Each structure stands twice: as C-alpha cells, then as structure tokens.
Amino acid sequence: MPVQFIVTGFGEFHGVSRNPTQALVDWLLEKQPARCSRITTQATATDAAFGTGEAASIVNRAEKAYDILSCTVLEVSATAVCKFLEEQAARLQAACSAAGRQPVVLLHLGVDNQRTGLNLELQAFNNATFRCPDQAGWQPNALAIEQGLGLTSVRSSALPVQQLAQELRGAGFDCHVSQDAGRFVCNYIYHKSLQLSCRLSRTQQQAAAGSGSSSSSSSCAVEAPDRQEDATSAAAAAAAAGASSDAGSSDGGSTPAAQQQLQQLVDACEGTPCYSLFVHVPSFDAVTEEKQQQFLLALLDSISRRLARPVAA
Fold first, then answer.
1. Is residue 20 part of a domain?
2. Which of 120, 122, 218 is nearest to 167 (CA)?
C-alpha cells in the first residue's frame, strides 16, 4: 500500500531571500499533474544518486510507491505553522478512513545556510526561542511549545532516522543525523508535527504494547522531562497545533473552535501509523539544486520502502 506524504518547505525570512526549500517543494509539485495525484517510482536511493537528469525521470517509472497528498510552501511564522497543521488534520482524517489505514508521513524541509550537508533531524526541543522575529513579527523567548513539559524536553521521530541517513550516504549523498533543529520556526513546526503524529499513532502504540510487541512509533516518547515550567511559559502551547502565548500573545492564531475541530479530527484518526520528519538542507551553493532534488526523491523512496505494507485482504 502506498505511503502518503505531506511535504512542506518555507519561504523567505530574515537573512534568507531565496529559500532552497521553496524551490524544492515547488519542483516536487510540478512533477505531479495536480495536488493529491500520485507520483510513481521504482527507484531506490542508489538509483536517484546517479546520472544527469535522473531526478527528473524517476517520477515517471511504473511501480506505485507513494502518494504525495500535498506540497506546501509555508510562511516562516508560528501562525502559518499552526494554521497549516489544523488544516492538514482533515486531510489526515481522509487518509484514516481509507482501507488499511495507509502510513502517513509529515515531511518538513527547512534551510540552514551554516550547514554544508543534508541533515535528518532526530528530535525537536520543547523550546521556542526565536533569534529574530518570524515573518508575522512574533519573537518568543524561552517559551515552552507543549504545555506541561520543560524547555529541555524533546520529542523524537518515529522513523529509523539513523538507518535512513546511512542508506542515503551509501547512495552518494552527504547526509547525516542532527540532534539539534535549533529553536526557531524549523524546530517549532517539527515539535508541533511530532505532537500531532504521536497523538494519531497513540492507539496503535497501545495495542503493540498490550501484545508485547515492540513499536517503532517512538515519537510519543518525551525525553528529559522537566516539570518545572519557566515563568515565561506558564501559558504555553496546547498539544498538536493549539495556541501558546508569550505575555498574552497567541503564537498561531488558533481559535478555540479551531482547536476543538482539530481534536475531533485527531480522535477520529487515532491508530493511523503517522510519522514526522524534519530535514535541514544547505544553500544551493553548498549542495546543488539538482543534487538536492535527487536527494528529496531518494528520501521519499527510502521512507516509503521502509513503511509500505501490503493491503489487507
């Protein structure tokens, strides 16, 4: 059964006038005739790494491996992040209702011009400390993203990040695992996304625990919990794209009605194998645009091959 992907990138922000993730997401969208159409591939990560123009041809191969549900370029702001995750809950509900409950992956791309390679982020910190205002003018300092957890706590991806990075390196990409996504909007969307994927997968994890089997959906694990809330985060964010505040200012413009609707959709989706991953890419000066296109296709293929499963009879 094809794995389903929701892919995001970011637009311009302070110090970055040309965001490579916008170009990558726009390019990926151009490879499908319309939103929610199917991209097909037989390519492995190794296939994607070699040959001039190979990235452009991979999408035309015959075997159905994954669906791209959406490709979205987001404003670099907490407001845009929260609004997007609320909107995607409805899309996830549709995926939940499909036969077999296909695995869904929230794949987020962001740029770090200080890096020279491609980084799969292992985890996100429960700490919003923006080094500059986001594109909506919000600049939190030491604000907990998830209510009830300390600033040092982290949520980790359920995907086998180390194995994915190793496979991609073997395919010729300078890809490594990072344990620090920063404290800006990249980390912010990752933590929010991990919260959502955890809640969607919760029933599946409980069932696995009850049967004595191990579950790979480790994104529900919260490490290094510090229950002593910082004074600046006493009214911090509710889980999965709810509103947080800093001196009374909402972080995402989430209304109570929107949060209630999101919770209803999340409840309806419980048990869906849902995953989240954030990828930091460098500038196109450090790694060429074509190479990053090849990397993106190879990553989609690697994830889908690890998660794909046969349709239940």
1. yes
2. 120
> Are 247 and 75 in contact, with CB atoms under 8 Å apart?
no
161-170 helix and 289-307 helix, angle to the nearest 10 degrees? 130
Most distant pair of Cα atoms in the chain: their distance: 56
CATH number of the domain bearing residue 146:
3.40.630.20
pTM: 0.74
Q: What is the pLDDT of residues 151-178, one digit of tens each?
A: 999 999 999 999 999 999 999 999 999 9
Q: Which ranges in 159-226 belong to alpha helices (H)? A: 161-170, 185-211
Nearest to 10 by CA among 80, 76, 79, 107: 76
Quickly state the pLDDT bin for 94 (edges 50, 70, 90): low
What is the tally of structural domains in the chain? 1
Give the tens place of pLDDT for each residue, 172-222. 999 999 999 999 999 999 999 999 888 777 644 444 455 444 334 445 556
- Measured in degrees and rounded to the nearest 5, phi and psi for residue 13 equal -160, -175
Host domain of residue 140: 3-307
Q: Answer whether residue 53 is part of any domain.
A: yes
- Could you tell me if residue 172 is left (phi over 0), alpha (psi between -120 and 50 degrees) or otherwise beta? left
Among residues 147, 241, 247, 259, the alpha carbon closest in space to that of 188 is found at 241
313 in any annotated domain: no
Sheet holding 123-125, edge to edge: 123-125, 154-156, 222-223
Residue 122 lies in a domain: yes
Q: In the block, which residue shows the tokens 């929230």?
A: 106
Q: Are 131 and 102 in contact (CB under 8 A)?
A: no
18: number of Cβ within 10 Å? 11
Specify whether the CB–CB gap between 143 and 244 falls below 8 A.
Answer: yes
